[in-house]
């Protein structure tokens, strides 16, 4: 079960208990629960059932509008979004990544080796999936490509999110698809650069990117800032680590080309690929 999915509800419950100056052990006694049940509910280690949440609130003396706010929040977080469906060829951490992006106010992605999943064309995504899951070709991989497309649609259909993508220049030159498909990927990036803050970190700029892998920094209006790594590792929201990722992001942004310079570079690379194709 994802602790990320219900984080707003569980954080609100814990905050209400602390505001009531009530120890978790005393709350457990009032509810006739085990202390571990209170702990699992407050940390999101178990799905917060509406009955348990209602009992929890009433044990704190929370009722009326304040109670309704928490229950409405739980209802929103329980919504059956497509990325929570059973049977998807996706890890729990990847599902968390999509969920974070679906509600963040700002999304900042750093991609050191490959074009990030949120900006891949279908052909590019298929090539990456085929390489990563070489022993399971066919239908399962087609479904994984579909998941990548769904993730893109979920993020870019939103109007209230600011997206910044930082890509190391080597990722633009690395051939993972045919020349024709590579040009299509570059053209797609050039198009997306008109609607998001897309920056390339060029070969000749010093930056600390080699000390970290790909990551995405998600900021929220009413949640802790969180980092995910496209589902490769559990999401991170500890203050110390977030401070480090923020500093790293600022350094990468300082090393990157401006949006205008990035658009010029992408146009140049696309035109270069076109000339190569014309003489092939």
Keywords:
280 residues, alpha/beta, 434 Repressor (Amino-terminal Domain), Endonuclease, Chain A, 2 domains, 12 helices, 5 strands, 54% helix, elongated
Explained architecture:
This protein has 280 residues and is an alpha/beta fold. The protein has two domains: 7-77, 434 Repressor (Amino-terminal Domain) (Orthogonal Bundle); 85-278, Endonuclease, Chain A (2-Layer Sandwich), CATH 3.30.870. Helix content is 54%, strand content 9%. It has twelve helices and five strands. The protein has helices spanning 7-19, 24-31, 35-43, 50-59, 64-77, 92-103, 122-132, 139-156, 169-173, 179-192, 239-255, 259-278; strands at 106-111, 162-168, 197-201, 215-219, 226-228. It has a five-stranded mixed beta sheet with strand order 3-2-1-4-5, with helices on both faces. Strand 4 (215-219) and strand 5 form a beta hairpin. The longest helix is centred in the C-terminal third of the chain and has 20 residues, at 259-278. The chain is elongated. The mean pLDDT is 91. Residues 13-66 form the HTH cro/C1-type domain. It comes from Actinokineospora auranticolor. InterPro entries: Cro/C1-type_HTH (IPR001387), DUF5753 (IPR043917), Lambda_DNA-bd_dom_sf (IPR010982). This is Helix-turn-helix protein. GO terms for molecular function: DNA binding.
């Amino acid at each position: 079960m994802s602790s990320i999915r219900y984080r707003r509800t569980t954080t609100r419950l814990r905050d209400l208990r602390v505001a009531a100056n009530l120890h978790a052990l005393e709350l457990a006694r009032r509810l006739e629960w085990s202390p571990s049940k209170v702990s699992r509910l407050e940390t999101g280690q178990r799905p917060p059932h509406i009955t348990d949440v209602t009992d929890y609130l009433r044990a704190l003396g929370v009722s009326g509008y304040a109670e309704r706010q928490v229950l409405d929040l739980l209802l929103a977080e329980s919504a059956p979004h497509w990325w929570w469906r059973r049977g998807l060829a996706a890890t729990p951490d990847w599902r968390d990544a999509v969920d974070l992006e679906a509600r963040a106010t700002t999304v900042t992605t750093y991609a050191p080796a490959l074009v990030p999943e949120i900006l891949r064309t279908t052909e590019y995504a298929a090539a990456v999936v085929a390489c990563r899951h070489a022993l399971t070709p066919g239908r399962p991989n087609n479904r994984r490509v579909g998941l990548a497309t769904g993730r893109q649609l979920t993020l870019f259909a939103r109007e209230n999110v600011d997206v910044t993508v930082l890509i190391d220049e080597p990722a633009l030159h690395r051939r993972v698809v045919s020349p024709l498909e590579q040009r299509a990927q570059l053209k797609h990036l050039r198009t997306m650069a008109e609607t998001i803050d897309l920056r390339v970190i060029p070969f000749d700029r010093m930056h600390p990117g080699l000390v970290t892998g790909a990551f995405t920094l998600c900021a929220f209006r009413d949640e802790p800032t969180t980092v995910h790594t496209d589902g490769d590792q559990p999401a991170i929201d500890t203050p110390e680590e977030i401070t480090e990722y923020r500093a790293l992001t600022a350094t990468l942004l300082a090393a990157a080309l401006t949006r205008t310079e990035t658009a010029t570079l992408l146009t140049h690379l696309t035109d270069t690929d076109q000339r190569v194709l014309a003489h092939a």
